[in-house]
């Protein structure tokens, strides 16, 4: 077996050295009744070539985003990632290192984490960020739990613009705790819900996504004001981090916790994971924060260095009193984020964001020109929602048959019915060309004809 | 023409200068100091070429930011150099033995990286039409089949994103199952030797944790479990047990323990962090588990990546299977049906909710399946056996000099020593571990599990050759003999040769500096103002 260095001679010598007759003596504690001889139901080892053929055949059954006009978003986005990023994250020293528990020999990982935290804090307009969460959805659930700890209240109000699957994750994690409740507002494609009316003294936090799941930009300031008046926290959520290059930061609008999906920078679509959750807050709340934190310090010779810090919040020290059970986070995905963000900088990110916005505006105009198609959003970034006269699921399937992946039918995620059944969330990024947009408009015209 | 017959001098001659200890740059040859990007980056150039968009009318309402984000950039060559230099300050499995007990630092085959990057896996969107990604669901389904077969179970929740997230999933399923029976139970039993994630997870899901002490041999006795069950009659929701446990031992009474918890109406959560020791040797389902997460990044070698991403699918017993979270794949003969929302549920299916957006860690699934296919049933079993063989080889190589807390018995895939061999030497477990760094080794897991004093948990994995183990054992013996000979200077303040000396963690925690802030501008002399 190519991955196992021991030869049969080695094994025999080593068993003799250990002083046992056979390998099974080392497994003697396994009750005899359950000991296995062989796994006859599973295939035997394969060569590298055989594995490549088998998995390659599976991969070939899928339609990849780069192979056709592609406008699917709704929480995961197709962007161009510089070749440098994937090369660097595959360096052995990053790829095959563990969580940096021994800082003297993991300064590479730690310094990159410190850079990541700084980038995320500056992007979101917050004072501190952690070393990443699994993804945006689990980060949102952790943010709600953190707000409960900070406010000592347990009612979360969720905007109807929050990604439906994020809402489900929050409900699953926090609604089942003793005394906790979640008020989830109905779907709000246009950003016109009255969330202020839902905030009262019982409210622990208000969770608002901007750009919303439907692409609508939301003014967070009045929500922050109302929340603060009731000693509640505003949790600002985003799924498209590129938008922060062009939009006023959630921190500047008064958010107390900012949490979002960082996949767009540095990370491929990969069918939904692994991604990287970004999580930032105010300095005064750091001891209630979930997740790993990297901090600056000095070594015995006074040289600057970095360590994992404030671990007294964490599970391996505090056990059942920990702020979260998180252990592994998204190390390598956060490294990819940091490298790509380093190549962009603030100006590069703003330019990337402008190109995204321009493409989305051009697409919205092209689709709105089709009879019966309506763009619902008054203000949007690189994603918007259209209403068509036909069922959205059928429209998307018909478009796919014409070689265009035209977006996400809202009814795939939200089964409330009614008007939602005719809505499609459409995204456009820097990868889309004029030809892509023309192909989409033409195909949609034909499907709706 | 005469040839130079002298060649290149290999020794410093009398004329050469002695090697200076301080360099102008602070670098030491290949060991280079590297500033933060914020100290070397710039705002007027970057590493990504992109044309500025033509004039168009933005549709951003009044949401535009007034200034660009305060983040400098590096060009491509500068980026490359910066991160390559940083990488060289990292220890890695590819560079040396990484004996972190319970973390399972085994070889990461590069075939798996190549497979995960096929456009048919890496460049597909979780919400593109299901009809356009049949291969994705086929892959998830095949991996699920392997996991169920290896564990002897009939259901698996694939979506949890790491081990602790899998624990959370399993415990939520248990909570839901208890509620479905119309019961309320408030307590979860956790042995003292458990990973910190176990009690943290139980608390996160809303349970009170009651600790079970370990026996003198490091294992959990069924009597201790029964005692706690009886003390909290009708209140125990579950037992969370790691098997093989964190002392590197297989729990010999695990079947009886499972029966005891089942008889009391509770569920058996098994922490699968150490499943790598018994793959192909025993099926956890046969031991009576109700739920067990599998760290694909441990047992099935998806790279640890400096702290993730992981992946933590949870296998479930038939009793818990109906409560598996959304989304899942329902098999209809050869047909795969994707169930994403509650309106698609059929008889008996009562998911407790959803763990994450989308379908979980697809990139890790591809790597894990590639690893399984490569090994096959025979290779997986051999890997478990070699892991256990290597750990025992280290054990017998060191047991006369170091101290085994539970006697000279065989261990599973990792061997646990305590610090009694360091008694009266003035050398602590921490000092000892840091001295290993100077010898070119990553230290073993220290001070865990908590059930022994100054724990040192060594897991060599199956990826080490015999020569590598021999050198490791010889090095450890040399270190122990130094400590016992009173050579404290080798340990106190170690490491001496790493990119950094020991770091001040107390200062870091007392006054946390968690991001870079531009230094105050230097005051300009008045005559220059």
UniProtKB/TrEMBL annotation, chain A:
Signal peptide: none annotated. Belongs to the GcvP family. N-terminal subunit subfamily. It is an enzyme of class 1 (oxidoreductase). Its EC number is 1.4.4.2. This is Probable glycine dehydrogenase (decarboxylating) subunit 1. Keywords: Oxidoreductase. The keyword Methyltransferase does not apply. The keyword Oxidoreductase applies. The glycine cleavage system is composed of four proteins: P, T, L and H. In this organism, the P 'protein' is a heterodimer of two subunits. It comes from Pseudovibrio japonicus.
UniProtKB/TrEMBL annotation, chain B:
It catalyses: N(6)-[(R)-lipoyl]-L-lysyl-[glycine-cleavage complex H protein] + glycine + H(+) = N(6)-[(R)-S(8)-aminomethyldihydrolipoyl]-L-lysyl-[glycine-cleavage complex H protein] + CO2. Residues 1-24 are annotated as: Disordered. Keywords: Oxidoreductase, Pyridoxal phosphate. It comes from the Bacteria. Its EC number is 1.4.4.2. Residues 175-305 form the Aminotransferase class V domain. The keyword GTP-binding does not apply. This is glycine dehydrogenase (aminomethyl-transferring). Residues 383-482 form the Glycine dehydrogenase C-terminal domain. Gene3D superfamilies: 6.20.440.10, Aspartate Aminotransferase, domain 1, Type I PLP-dependent aspartate aminotransferase-like (Major domain). It comes from Pseudovibrio japonicus. Pfam families: Aminotran_5 (PF00266), GcvP2_C (PF21478). The glycine cleavage system catalyzes the degradation of glycine. The P protein binds the alpha-amino group of glycine through its pyridoxal phosphate cofactor; CO(2) is released and the remaining methylamine moiety is then transferred to the lipoamide cofactor of the H protein.
């Amino acid at each position: 077996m190519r991955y196992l260095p021991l030869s049969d001679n080695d094994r025999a010598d080593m068993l003799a050295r250990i002083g046992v007759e056979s390998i099974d003596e080392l497994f003697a504690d396994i009750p005899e009744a359950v000991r296995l001889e062989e796994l006859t139901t599973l295939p035997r080892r394969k060569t590298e070539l055989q594995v490549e053929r088998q998995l390659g055949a599976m991969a070939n059954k899928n339609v990849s985003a780069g192979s056709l006009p592609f406008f699917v978003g709704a929480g995961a986005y197709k962007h161009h990632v510089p070749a440098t990023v994937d090369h660097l994250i595959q360096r052995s020293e990053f790829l095959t290192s563990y969580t940096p528990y021994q800082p003297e020999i993991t300064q590479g990982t730690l310094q990159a984490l410190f850079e990541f935290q700084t980038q995320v804090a500056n992007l979101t307009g917050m004072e501190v960020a952690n070393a990443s969460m699994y993804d945006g959805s689990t980060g949102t659930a952790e943010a709600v739990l953190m707000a409960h700890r900070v406010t000592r209240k347990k009612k979360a109000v969720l905007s109807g613009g929050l990604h439906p699957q994020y809402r489900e994750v929050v409900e699953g994690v926090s609604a089942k705790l003793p005394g906790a409740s979640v008020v989830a507002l109905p779907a709000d494609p246009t950003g016109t819900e009255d969330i202020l009316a839902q905030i009262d003294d019982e409210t622990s936090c208000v969770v608002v996504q901007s750009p919303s799941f439907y692409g609508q930009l939301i003014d967070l300031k009045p929500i922050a004001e109302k929340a603060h008046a009731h000693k509640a926290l505003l949790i600002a959520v985003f799924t498209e981090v590129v938008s922060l290059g062009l939009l006023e930061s959630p921190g500047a609008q008064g958010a107390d916790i900012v949490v979002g999906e960082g996949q767009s920078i540095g990370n491929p679509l990969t069918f939904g994971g692994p991604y990287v959750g970004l999580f930032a807050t105010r300095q005064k709340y750091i001891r209630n924060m979930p997740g790993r934190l990297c901090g600056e310090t000095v070594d015995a010779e006074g040289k600057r260095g970095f360590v994992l810090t404030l671990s007294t919040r964490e599970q391996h020290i505090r056990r059942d009193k920990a702020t979260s059970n998180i252990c592994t986070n998204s190390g390598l995905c956060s490294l990819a984020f940091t490298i790509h963000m380093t190549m962009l900088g603030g100006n590069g990110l703003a330019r990337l964001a402008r190109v995204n916005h321009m493409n989305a505006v051009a697409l919205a105009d092209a689709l709105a020109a089709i009879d019966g198609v309506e763009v619902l959003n008054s203000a949007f970034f690189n994603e918007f929602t259209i209403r068509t006269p036909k069922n959205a699921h059928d429209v998307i399937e018909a478009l796919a048959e014409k070689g265009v992946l035209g977006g996400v039918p809202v009814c795939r995620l939200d089964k409330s019915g009614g008007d939602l059944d005719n809505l499609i969330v459409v995204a456009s990024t820097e990868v889309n060309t004029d030809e892509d947009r023309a192909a989409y408009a033409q195909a949609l015209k034909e499907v709706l004809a | 023409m005469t040839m130079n017959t002298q060649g290149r001098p290999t020794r410093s001659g009398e004329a050469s200068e002695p090697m200076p200890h301080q360099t102008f740059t602070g670098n030491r040859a290949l060991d280079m100091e590297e500033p933060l990007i914020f100290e070397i980056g710039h705002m007027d150039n970057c590493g990504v070429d992109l044309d500025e968009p033509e004039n168009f009318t933005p549709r951003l309402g009044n949401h535009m930011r007034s200034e660009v984000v305060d983040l400098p950039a590096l060009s491509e060559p500068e980026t490359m150099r910066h991160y390559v230099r940083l990488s060289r300050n990292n220890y890695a499995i590819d560079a040396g033995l990484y004996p972190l007990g319970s973390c399972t630092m085994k070889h990461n085959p590069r075939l798996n990286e190549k497979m995960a990057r096929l456009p048919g896996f890496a460049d597909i969107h979780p919400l593109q039409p299901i009809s356009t990604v049949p291969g994705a669901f086929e892959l998830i389904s095949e991996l699920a089949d392997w996991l169920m077969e290896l564990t002897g179970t009939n259901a698996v929740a694939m979506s949890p994103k790491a081990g602790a997230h899998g624990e959370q999933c399993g415990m939520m399923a248990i909570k839901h199952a208890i509620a479905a029976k119309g019961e309320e139970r408030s307590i979860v039993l956790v042995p003292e030797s458990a990973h910190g994630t176990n009690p943290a997870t139980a608390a996160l899901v809303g349970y009170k944790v009651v600790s079970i002490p370990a026996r003198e041999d490091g294992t959990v006795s069924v009597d201790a479990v029964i005692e706690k069950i009886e003390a909290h009659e009708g209140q125990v929701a579950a037992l969370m047990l790691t098997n093989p446990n964190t002392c590197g031992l297989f729990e010999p009474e695990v079947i009886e323990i499972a029966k005891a918890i089942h008889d009391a109406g509770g569920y058996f959560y098994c922490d699968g962090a150490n499943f790598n020791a018994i793959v192909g040797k025993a099926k956890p389902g046969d031991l009576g588990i109700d739920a067990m997460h599998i760290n694909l990044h441990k047992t099935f070698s998806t790279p640890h990546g400096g702290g993730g991403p992981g992946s933590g699918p949870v296998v479930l017993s038939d009793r818990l299977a109906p409560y598996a979270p959304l989304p899942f794949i329902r098999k209809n003969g050869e047909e795969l049906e994707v169930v994403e929302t509650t309106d698609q549920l059929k008889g008996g299916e009562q998911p407790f909710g959803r763990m994450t957006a989308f379908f979980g860690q697809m990139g890790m699934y591809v790597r894990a399946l590639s690893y399984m296919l490569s090994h096959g049933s025979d290779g997986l079993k051999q890997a478990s056996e070699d892991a256990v063989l290597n750990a025992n080889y280290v054990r017998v190589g060191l047991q006369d000099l170091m101290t085994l807390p539970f006697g000279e018995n065989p261990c599973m895939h990792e061997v646990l020593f305590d610090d009694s061999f360091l008694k009266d030497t003035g050398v602590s477990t921490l000092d000892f571990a840091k001295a290993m760094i100077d010898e070119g080794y990553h230290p073993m897991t220290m001070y865990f599990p908590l059930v022994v004093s100054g724990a040192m948990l060594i897991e060599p994995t199956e990826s080490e050759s015999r020569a590598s183990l021999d050198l490791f054992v010889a090095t450890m013996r040399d270190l122990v003999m130094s400590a016992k000979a009173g050579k404290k200077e080798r340990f106190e303040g170690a490491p001496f040769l790493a990119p950094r000396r020991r770091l001040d963690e107390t200062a870091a925690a007392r006054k946390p500096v968690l991001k870079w802030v531009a230094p105050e501008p230097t005051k300009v002399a008045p005559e220059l103002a």
